[in-house]
Amino acid sequence: MRYLTLFILSLIMWLLLTFKLTIPNLIVGTVVAAITALIFARYFIRNVHKFLEPKRYFWLFVYFFVFLWACLKANIDVAYRVLHPAMPIRPGIVKVRTTLRSDFARTLLANSITMTPGTISVDIIGDDLYIHWIYVHSEDPEVYSSLILGQFEKYIKRIVE
């Protein structure tokens, strides 16, 4: 089931990236999706039946807009820091504890944090994420954890776990 699910998702991604619905493109996309499924399906999500639950797609849709809003705010914050004459930065690496259990969920969280300007995920060790932050607002782990994780963790938990 994992192979079939990854094949279908890969083919859909191929078609979205190429945006051509021609016979040669479908043939190449099918071959690429099949090779991708054969190589990477063993690393794919174990509980594939979760892909059939419509509520997860709803939360993915909601997460998309939450993520866009967080990126917009972070872009404005980074632009402010770059354009400010005093360049108010206070960089540092902070350790954030996550409650997400699956590797896929943790990776999604780390990538979401990295794609948000001003933060970069450095490492994941167990339940801890190490994040380089352009401006460390607080020394209190609960304060900076809530600022960095924001709503990401809550929605990722609803989507994946």
Characterization of this structure:
There is one protein chain. Strand 2 and strand 3 form a beta hairpin. The chain contains six helices and three strands; from the N terminus they run αααβαββαα. A three-stranded antiparallel β-sheet has the order 1-3-2, with helices on one face. The chain is mainly alpha-helical and 161 residues long. The model has no long low-confidence stretch (mean pLDDT 89). It starts with a helix and ends with a helix.
Oligomer: single chain
- Tally of separate domains: 2
Instruction: Count the beta strands.
Output: 3
Q: How do the SSEs run, as a string of H and E? A: HHHEHEEHH
The end-to-end span amounts to 18 Å
- Stretches where pLDDT falls below 50 for ≥5 residues? none
For the biggest sheet, the summary is: 3 strands, antiparallel
Morphology call: globular
**Count, helices:** 6
What is the topology, as strand order, of the major beta sheet? 1-3-2
Strand residues, percent: 5-15%
- Average residue-wise pLDDT: 89
* Rg value: 19 Å
Helical percent range? 55-70%
Indicate the structural class.
mainly alpha
